[in-house]
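Archive maintenance. Older records in this collection stored only the sequence; we are now back-filling the structure field for every entry so that each record is complete. The fields below show one back-filled record exactly as it appears after the update. Entries are processed alphabetically, and Cystine/glutamate transporter is next in the queue.

ARCHIVE ENTRY
Title: Cystine/glutamate transporter
Organism field: Larimichthys crocea
Length field: 486
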Amino acid sequence: MDGTRMKKEEDGEKTKTDEEVVHLRREIGLLPAVSFIIGTVVGSGIFIAPKGVLMNSGSVGLSLLVWALCGVLSLFGALCYAELGTSFTKSGGHYTYLLETLGPLPAFLRLWVEFLFIRPAVASYVSLAFGRYVVEPFFAPCPAPMALIKLVSLLGVTFVVAVNCWSVTMASRTQVTLTFIKMFALVLIIIPGVIALAKGKTENFQNGFEVDSLTLDMLPLAFYNGLYAYGGWFYLNFVTEEVINPNRTIPLAISFSMVTVTIFYVLVNVAYYTMMTPAELLLSEAVAMTFANRALQGLSSVIPILVALSCLGALNGGFFGSPRMLFVGAREGHWPPIFSMIHVRRKTPLPAVLLLYPLVVLMLTTGEIYQLINFVSFSRWFFIALATMGMLIHRYRFPLHPRPFKVPLVIAVTFTVVCFFIVGLSLYSDPWNTGKSCALTLTGIPVYYMTVYRFRLPRRWRRIFNYCSKQLQILLEVAQQEVQTY
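Back-filled structure field:
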């Protein structure tokens, strides 16, 4: 009897130890996974990017075609990432796939450009849209003060950072809730547009394919704006180690999410053009607001709130996913070890989440919104193209490697070629921003060889760095992962 009691006590102690052990838990099922993708994709893009797509495509018909093609291209890319996510079970998304297929230098450059430029730029873009939709209704019809928009944007970013530092479960539930709200917002825009279209309001679609104003060098920028609105289909791959049954969940969630988003996006744009002329759409700073004032007079005050919450959901998804890339990069030795640590009680990658905050605040205070898209898109799409090319090379070199989900070869090749084509053409159509983005990416090469590749740093620097890391670890109450989760 004493032996049985002792065994129970040991089991209880073991259970307690398992719960206390420091590692990221598998807590993301199919519904949170779908919400995570849809909630990150549907952000500010669909409410702001229609202007950029129309401006660069030159006609209503062509802009709708761009929206549909961007959806198909994003679905192709998402299916490629479903194969990568089930072939390599580590978190980290782009970084992990480049590391496994093309080696450490491209992976480090992806990490470098993601955290110094891409993620802060995207987060500041989305948070500025959040601030605009919260503030502008109070000042209509006058322009809202930019300082106030930036202050509200900053509050939105601070809230999202706090949620993601506090709890993985809370961040996941916040994402599910905000996803349902934003889908309701899209339905609210689609219904009056479809009703008006059914009643014969089609004048804005007459001569929809006027190609006089189209210039081929501007077309990639139209695709960039459209693809930006679809951006986020790859974020589930950042958290592979936290997904329940990833071999089933990742392909299912990705396929369902991207088909749903494409249908909704095309219908929303049809609704916009039903109620607004192209000239009115181009003059609007906040397309959804102009649409609401025209088509939903009784509910026009609700739309800005729904759009603001939609932006908040995209911001939350980005802050949930991106730090995992940094977390994995630090675990692989490509970033300071402090960023591969987890809060001992909260079980969140606290240092990785916190690093983004000052960078976003810095980016938020500078930069014009459309330049940010073009600036970010070059590096983002170049590395996505490299990752899918790496997948094809890995298939050829290791045909026996287990691939629970395998995308058809024609889809993978088409997506990779189109990505490289868009990236190449963008260098021609917007050489200043894309050249700047390319140059900033290349600044990571000397950093890689000086720090990661171990042209050894001076001993004094290493001592100071190690001391600072130790103090930060104590201050933040973080520790290394104790269980291998991949």
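Update note: The two ends are 40 Å apart (CA to CA). The CA atoms of residues 106 and 250 lie 25 Å apart.
Entry marked complete.
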